[in-house]
Amino acid sequence: MYPIIRNRRLRTSNALRSLVQETTLTVDDFIVPLFVVEGVGIKEEILSMPGQYRMSLDLLEDEIRELTALNLKAVLLFAKTDDAKKDNEGVEAWNPEGLMQRAIKTVKTTNSEMLVLTDVALDPFSIYGHDGIVAGGKVQNDPTVEALCKMSVSHARAGADLVAPSDMMDGRIIEIRKALDAEGFEDVGILSYAAKYASSFYGPFRDALDSAPVDAEDIPEDKKTYQMNPANRIEAVKEALMDQEEGADILMVKPGLPYLDIVREVKNAVQLPVAVYHVSGEYAMLHAAAEKGWIDYEKAYLEQLMCFKRAGADLIATYFAKEAAKYLQGL
Ligand code: PBG
Fold it and tell me: How far is the CA of 236 from the centre of ligand 1 (A)?
Protein backbone atom coordinates (compact mmCIF):
# COMPACT_ATOMS: atom_id res chain seq x y z
CA MET A 1 0.00 0.00 0.00
CA TYR A 2 0.89 3.66 -0.28
CA PRO A 3 3.58 4.91 0.21
CA ILE A 4 5.20 1.59 -0.84
CA ILE A 5 3.03 1.35 -3.97
CA ARG A 6 3.07 4.57 -5.94
CA ASN A 7 1.12 4.34 -9.20
CA ARG A 8 2.64 7.59 -10.40
CA ARG A 9 6.09 5.95 -10.52
CA LEU A 10 5.31 4.45 -13.94
CA ARG A 11 4.10 7.80 -15.24
CA THR A 12 7.26 9.79 -14.62
CA SER A 13 8.64 10.01 -18.18
CA ASN A 14 7.55 9.59 -21.77
CA ALA A 15 9.83 6.56 -22.12
CA LEU A 16 8.38 4.83 -19.09
CA ARG A 17 4.82 5.68 -20.05
CA SER A 18 5.27 4.17 -23.50
CA LEU A 19 7.01 1.10 -22.06
CA VAL A 20 3.94 0.22 -20.02
CA GLN A 21 1.31 1.45 -22.46
CA GLU A 22 -1.40 -1.20 -22.81
CA THR A 23 -2.88 -0.24 -26.16
CA THR A 24 -1.37 0.98 -29.42
CA LEU A 25 -2.87 2.52 -32.48
CA THR A 26 -1.41 1.71 -35.91
CA VAL A 27 -2.21 2.41 -39.53
CA ASP A 28 -3.25 -1.25 -39.84
CA ASP A 29 -6.27 -0.59 -37.63
CA PHE A 30 -8.14 1.59 -40.08
CA ILE A 31 -10.83 1.16 -42.69
CA VAL A 32 -11.39 4.26 -44.83
CA PRO A 33 -15.02 5.04 -45.75
CA LEU A 34 -15.34 6.64 -49.22
CA PHE A 35 -18.30 8.12 -51.09
CA VAL A 36 -18.49 7.86 -54.86
CA VAL A 37 -20.69 9.64 -57.42
CA GLU A 38 -21.28 9.52 -61.18
CA GLY A 39 -19.46 12.02 -63.37
CA VAL A 40 -15.96 13.17 -64.20
CA GLY A 41 -13.69 15.47 -62.26
CA ILE A 42 -16.09 15.69 -59.34
CA LYS A 43 -14.85 16.10 -55.79
CA GLU A 44 -17.56 17.82 -53.78
CA GLU A 45 -17.14 18.40 -50.10
CA ILE A 46 -19.95 17.10 -47.89
CA LEU A 47 -21.29 20.13 -46.05
CA SER A 48 -21.72 18.46 -42.67
CA MET A 49 -18.46 16.49 -42.99
CA PRO A 50 -15.61 18.94 -43.63
CA GLY A 51 -12.68 17.24 -45.38
CA GLN A 52 -14.86 14.38 -46.71
CA TYR A 53 -15.90 14.28 -50.35
CA ARG A 54 -18.14 12.65 -52.89
CA MET A 55 -15.78 11.65 -55.67
CA SER A 56 -16.21 10.58 -59.26
CA LEU A 57 -14.34 7.44 -60.26
CA ASP A 58 -11.47 9.22 -62.03
CA LEU A 59 -10.68 11.06 -58.81
CA LEU A 60 -11.22 7.91 -56.78
CA GLU A 61 -8.08 6.63 -58.51
CA ASP A 62 -6.07 9.55 -57.12
CA GLU A 63 -7.53 8.96 -53.69
CA ILE A 64 -6.57 5.29 -53.76
CA ARG A 65 -3.00 6.21 -54.72
CA GLU A 66 -2.88 8.63 -51.83
CA LEU A 67 -4.22 6.05 -49.38
CA THR A 68 -1.72 3.50 -50.66
CA ALA A 69 1.14 5.94 -50.08
CA LEU A 70 -0.11 6.33 -46.52
CA ASN A 71 -0.03 2.53 -46.04
CA LEU A 72 -3.80 2.37 -45.59
CA LYS A 73 -5.04 -1.04 -46.60
CA ALA A 74 -8.82 -1.07 -46.70
CA VAL A 75 -11.63 1.09 -48.04
CA LEU A 76 -15.36 0.86 -47.39
CA LEU A 77 -17.31 2.06 -50.41
CA PHE A 78 -20.64 3.88 -50.51
CA ALA A 79 -22.24 4.89 -53.80
CA LYS A 80 -24.53 7.88 -54.19
CA THR A 81 -27.29 6.81 -56.54
CA ASP A 82 -29.02 9.18 -58.94
CA ASP A 83 -32.68 9.67 -58.01
CA ALA A 84 -33.76 8.36 -61.40
CA LYS A 85 -32.20 4.98 -60.57
CA LYS A 86 -33.95 4.55 -57.22
CA ASP A 87 -36.96 2.27 -56.74
CA ASN A 88 -38.48 0.25 -53.92
CA GLU A 89 -36.63 -3.00 -54.65
CA GLY A 90 -33.17 -1.47 -55.06
CA VAL A 91 -32.69 -3.12 -58.46
CA GLU A 92 -29.81 -0.77 -59.29
CA ALA A 93 -27.92 -2.26 -56.35
CA TRP A 94 -26.99 -5.36 -58.35
CA ASN A 95 -26.56 -3.76 -61.76
CA PRO A 96 -23.24 -5.23 -62.98
CA GLU A 97 -22.49 -1.83 -64.54
CA GLY A 98 -23.70 0.14 -61.52
CA LEU A 99 -21.66 2.86 -59.90
CA MET A 100 -20.67 0.66 -56.95
CA GLN A 101 -19.57 -2.18 -59.21
CA ARG A 102 -17.46 0.21 -61.32
CA ALA A 103 -16.03 1.77 -58.16
CA ILE A 104 -14.90 -1.64 -56.91
CA LYS A 105 -13.13 -2.28 -60.23
CA THR A 106 -11.58 1.18 -60.16
CA VAL A 107 -10.04 0.55 -56.75
CA LYS A 108 -8.76 -2.86 -57.77
CA THR A 109 -7.22 -1.68 -61.05
CA THR A 110 -5.53 1.23 -59.24
CA ASN A 111 -4.12 -1.00 -56.50
CA SER A 112 -5.02 -4.69 -56.58
CA GLU A 113 -3.88 -5.07 -52.96
CA MET A 114 -6.18 -2.43 -51.55
CA LEU A 115 -8.92 -4.31 -49.69
CA VAL A 116 -12.37 -3.38 -50.93
CA LEU A 117 -15.27 -3.57 -48.51
CA THR A 118 -18.71 -2.63 -49.79
CA ASP A 119 -21.81 -1.40 -48.04
CA VAL A 120 -24.68 -3.82 -48.53
CA ALA A 121 -28.08 -2.26 -47.80
CA LEU A 122 -30.80 -0.85 -50.00
CA ASP A 123 -31.08 2.69 -48.61
CA PRO A 124 -28.94 4.51 -51.21
CA PHE A 125 -31.03 2.76 -53.90
CA SER A 126 -34.44 3.05 -52.24
CA ILE A 127 -36.97 5.73 -53.19
CA TYR A 128 -38.08 5.54 -49.57
CA GLY A 129 -34.62 5.78 -48.01
CA HIS A 130 -35.02 2.46 -46.21
CA ASP A 131 -32.50 -0.33 -45.96
CA GLY A 132 -35.10 -2.79 -47.20
CA ILE A 133 -38.13 -3.22 -49.40
CA VAL A 134 -41.26 -1.48 -48.07
CA ALA A 135 -44.72 -3.05 -48.36
CA GLY A 136 -47.87 -2.58 -46.31
CA GLY A 137 -46.20 0.16 -44.27
CA LYS A 138 -43.39 -2.18 -43.19
CA VAL A 139 -39.82 -2.95 -44.12
CA GLN A 140 -40.03 -6.54 -45.34
CA ASN A 141 -37.38 -8.89 -43.99
CA ASP A 142 -37.17 -11.91 -46.26
CA PRO A 143 -37.62 -10.22 -49.67
CA THR A 144 -34.95 -7.75 -48.56
CA VAL A 145 -32.55 -10.56 -47.70
CA GLU A 146 -33.01 -11.95 -51.22
CA ALA A 147 -32.12 -8.55 -52.65
CA LEU A 148 -29.07 -8.28 -50.38
CA CYS A 149 -27.86 -11.67 -51.62
CA LYS A 150 -28.01 -10.48 -55.23
CA MET A 151 -26.25 -7.28 -54.25
CA SER A 152 -23.49 -9.14 -52.40
CA VAL A 153 -22.86 -11.55 -55.27
CA SER A 154 -22.66 -8.66 -57.70
CA HIS A 155 -20.10 -6.88 -55.49
CA ALA A 156 -18.08 -10.09 -55.24
CA ARG A 157 -18.19 -10.49 -59.01
CA ALA A 158 -16.85 -6.95 -59.41
CA GLY A 159 -13.94 -7.80 -57.10
CA ALA A 160 -14.97 -6.93 -53.52
CA ASP A 161 -12.91 -8.64 -50.81
CA LEU A 162 -15.56 -8.35 -48.12
CA VAL A 163 -19.21 -7.36 -48.26
CA ALA A 164 -20.51 -5.36 -45.33
CA PRO A 165 -24.24 -5.76 -44.76
CA SER A 166 -25.42 -2.73 -42.78
CA ASP A 167 -29.16 -3.36 -43.04
CA MET A 168 -29.96 -5.32 -39.83
CA MET A 169 -32.41 -7.74 -41.47
CA ASP A 170 -32.69 -11.08 -39.69
CA GLY A 171 -30.92 -14.07 -41.19
CA ARG A 172 -29.07 -12.12 -43.84
CA ILE A 173 -25.61 -13.34 -42.91
CA ILE A 174 -26.26 -17.02 -43.53
CA GLU A 175 -28.20 -16.30 -46.71
CA ILE A 176 -25.45 -14.02 -48.07
CA ARG A 177 -22.86 -16.66 -47.14
CA LYS A 178 -24.80 -19.34 -49.03
CA ALA A 179 -25.32 -17.07 -52.03
CA LEU A 180 -21.62 -16.17 -52.23
CA ASP A 181 -20.55 -19.81 -51.89
CA ALA A 182 -23.05 -20.96 -54.53
CA GLU A 183 -21.41 -18.58 -57.00
CA GLY A 184 -17.87 -19.70 -56.16
CA PHE A 185 -17.03 -16.74 -53.92
CA GLU A 186 -16.13 -18.73 -50.82
CA ASP A 187 -13.12 -16.47 -50.22
CA VAL A 188 -15.16 -13.30 -50.18
CA GLY A 189 -15.72 -12.38 -46.55
CA ILE A 190 -18.60 -10.85 -44.64
CA LEU A 191 -18.11 -7.96 -42.27
CA SER A 192 -21.44 -7.85 -40.52
CA TYR A 193 -22.82 -4.73 -38.94
CA ALA A 194 -23.91 -7.02 -36.13
CA ALA A 195 -25.00 -4.43 -33.57
CA LYS A 196 -26.16 -1.37 -35.43
CA TYR A 197 -28.25 1.04 -33.46
CA ALA A 198 -31.08 3.33 -34.58
CA SER A 199 -28.86 6.30 -33.85
CA SER A 200 -29.13 10.03 -34.34
CA PHE A 201 -25.45 10.16 -35.26
CA TYR A 202 -25.93 9.13 -38.92
CA GLY A 203 -27.33 12.49 -40.06
CA PRO A 204 -24.31 13.77 -42.01
CA PHE A 205 -23.95 10.40 -43.78
CA ARG A 206 -27.55 10.60 -44.96
CA ASP A 207 -26.78 14.10 -46.29
CA ALA A 208 -23.78 12.66 -48.11
CA LEU A 209 -25.83 10.00 -49.88
CA ASP A 210 -29.21 11.75 -49.83
CA SER A 211 -30.54 8.56 -48.23
CA ALA A 212 -32.69 9.67 -45.30
CA PRO A 213 -36.07 7.93 -44.90
CA VAL A 214 -38.72 9.93 -46.77
CA ASP A 215 -41.67 11.49 -44.99
CA ALA A 216 -44.70 9.90 -46.64
CA GLU A 217 -47.85 8.07 -45.69
CA ASP A 218 -47.43 4.34 -45.15
CA ILE A 219 -43.64 4.63 -45.08
CA PRO A 220 -41.95 4.00 -41.72
CA GLU A 221 -40.57 7.36 -40.55
CA ASP A 222 -37.43 5.90 -39.01
CA LYS A 223 -35.35 2.71 -38.91
CA LYS A 224 -36.38 1.53 -35.46
CA THR A 225 -38.05 -1.68 -36.65
CA TYR A 226 -34.70 -3.03 -37.82
CA GLN A 227 -31.86 -1.05 -36.22
CA MET A 228 -31.40 -1.61 -32.49
CA ASN A 229 -32.73 0.36 -29.56
CA PRO A 230 -29.86 2.40 -28.04
CA ALA A 231 -31.08 1.31 -24.61
CA ASN A 232 -30.11 -2.33 -25.20
CA ARG A 233 -26.88 -4.14 -24.38
CA ILE A 234 -27.66 -7.85 -24.04
CA GLU A 235 -29.43 -7.78 -27.38
CA ALA A 236 -26.15 -6.66 -28.99
CA VAL A 237 -24.41 -9.77 -27.70
CA LYS A 238 -27.24 -11.91 -29.06
CA GLU A 239 -26.97 -10.25 -32.49
CA ALA A 240 -23.19 -10.70 -32.52
CA LEU A 241 -23.31 -14.36 -31.50
CA MET A 242 -25.96 -15.11 -34.11
CA ASP A 243 -23.94 -13.44 -36.86
CA GLN A 244 -20.85 -15.38 -35.76
CA GLU A 245 -22.89 -18.58 -35.93
CA GLU A 246 -24.27 -17.64 -39.35
CA GLY A 247 -20.78 -17.32 -40.78
CA ALA A 248 -19.73 -13.68 -40.46
CA ASP A 249 -15.96 -13.11 -40.58
CA ILE A 250 -15.81 -9.78 -38.78
CA LEU A 251 -18.43 -8.21 -36.51
CA MET A 252 -19.03 -4.49 -36.31
CA VAL A 253 -20.58 -2.27 -33.66
CA LYS A 254 -22.02 1.08 -34.73
CA PRO A 255 -21.92 3.96 -33.84
CA GLY A 256 -18.65 4.25 -31.94
CA LEU A 257 -18.06 6.42 -28.93
CA PRO A 258 -21.46 6.26 -27.24
CA TYR A 259 -21.28 2.46 -27.62
CA LEU A 260 -17.84 1.55 -26.23
CA ASP A 261 -19.50 -0.66 -23.62
CA ILE A 262 -21.05 -2.64 -26.46
CA VAL A 263 -17.68 -2.96 -28.20
CA ARG A 264 -16.25 -4.49 -25.02
CA GLU A 265 -19.25 -6.79 -24.44
CA VAL A 266 -19.09 -8.07 -27.99
CA LYS A 267 -15.31 -8.48 -27.90
CA ASN A 268 -15.59 -10.58 -24.74
CA ALA A 269 -18.35 -12.74 -26.18
CA VAL A 270 -17.10 -13.65 -29.66
CA GLN A 271 -14.11 -15.31 -31.32
CA LEU A 272 -14.00 -13.01 -34.32
CA PRO A 273 -12.27 -9.70 -35.00
CA VAL A 274 -14.44 -6.82 -33.85
CA ALA A 275 -14.74 -3.59 -35.78
CA VAL A 276 -16.31 -0.32 -34.75
CA TYR A 277 -17.75 2.42 -36.95
CA HIS A 278 -16.79 5.91 -35.84
CA VAL A 279 -19.74 7.46 -37.66
CA SER A 280 -20.43 10.67 -39.51
CA GLY A 281 -22.13 12.49 -36.64
CA GLU A 282 -19.16 11.83 -34.38
CA TYR A 283 -16.85 13.23 -37.05
CA ALA A 284 -19.08 16.28 -37.52
CA MET A 285 -19.24 17.02 -33.78
CA LEU A 286 -15.49 17.03 -33.38
CA HIS A 287 -15.06 19.27 -36.40
CA ALA A 288 -17.69 21.69 -35.15
CA ALA A 289 -16.06 21.96 -31.73
CA ALA A 290 -12.62 22.40 -33.28
CA GLU A 291 -13.90 25.11 -35.65
CA LYS A 292 -15.09 27.04 -32.63
CA GLY A 293 -11.68 26.59 -31.05
CA TRP A 294 -13.23 24.69 -28.17
CA ILE A 295 -11.16 21.55 -28.51
CA ASP A 296 -7.71 20.49 -29.72
CA TYR A 297 -8.75 18.70 -32.90
CA GLU A 298 -5.74 16.44 -33.37
CA LYS A 299 -5.38 15.36 -29.76
CA ALA A 300 -9.11 14.76 -29.49
CA TYR A 301 -9.53 12.49 -32.50
CA LEU A 302 -6.37 10.53 -31.68
CA GLU A 303 -7.67 9.97 -28.16
CA GLN A 304 -10.99 8.79 -29.54
CA LEU A 305 -9.29 6.32 -31.87
CA MET A 306 -7.11 5.00 -29.05
CA CYS A 307 -10.19 4.54 -26.86
CA PHE A 308 -11.79 2.33 -29.52
CA LYS A 309 -8.77 0.04 -29.35
CA ARG A 310 -8.79 0.02 -25.56
CA ALA A 311 -12.49 -0.84 -25.57
CA GLY A 312 -11.73 -3.93 -27.65
CA ALA A 313 -12.00 -2.92 -31.29
CA ASP A 314 -9.54 -4.63 -33.62
CA LEU A 315 -10.53 -2.43 -36.54
CA ILE A 316 -11.90 1.08 -36.83
CA ALA A 317 -13.88 2.45 -39.75
CA THR A 318 -13.25 6.16 -39.43
CA TYR A 319 -13.29 9.35 -41.46
CA PHE A 320 -10.14 10.33 -39.54
CA ALA A 321 -8.15 7.45 -41.06
CA LYS A 322 -6.07 9.53 -43.47
CA GLU A 323 -5.11 12.17 -40.93
CA ALA A 324 -4.36 9.55 -38.31
CA ALA A 325 -2.23 7.56 -40.77
CA LYS A 326 -0.19 10.68 -41.51
CA TYR A 327 0.23 11.51 -37.85
CA LEU A 328 1.15 8.01 -36.73
CA GLN A 329 3.80 7.61 -39.42
CA GLY A 330 5.19 11.13 -39.20
CA LEU A 331 4.15 11.80 -42.82
C1 PBG B 1 -26.72 2.49 -44.54
C2 PBG B 1 -25.63 3.01 -43.68
C3 PBG B 1 -25.69 4.09 -42.79
C4 PBG B 1 -24.40 4.29 -42.33
C5 PBG B 1 -23.59 3.30 -42.90
N6 PBG B 1 -24.38 2.49 -43.72
C7 PBG B 1 -26.81 5.01 -42.44
C8 PBG B 1 -28.06 4.47 -41.90
O9 PBG B 1 -28.16 3.34 -41.45
O10 PBG B 1 -29.02 5.23 -41.93
C11 PBG B 1 -23.96 5.39 -41.42
C12 PBG B 1 -22.51 5.76 -41.44
C13 PBG B 1 -22.18 7.07 -40.84
O14 PBG B 1 -23.04 7.76 -40.26
O15 PBG B 1 -21.01 7.45 -40.93
N16 PBG B 1 -27.32 1.31 -44.23
Answer: 17
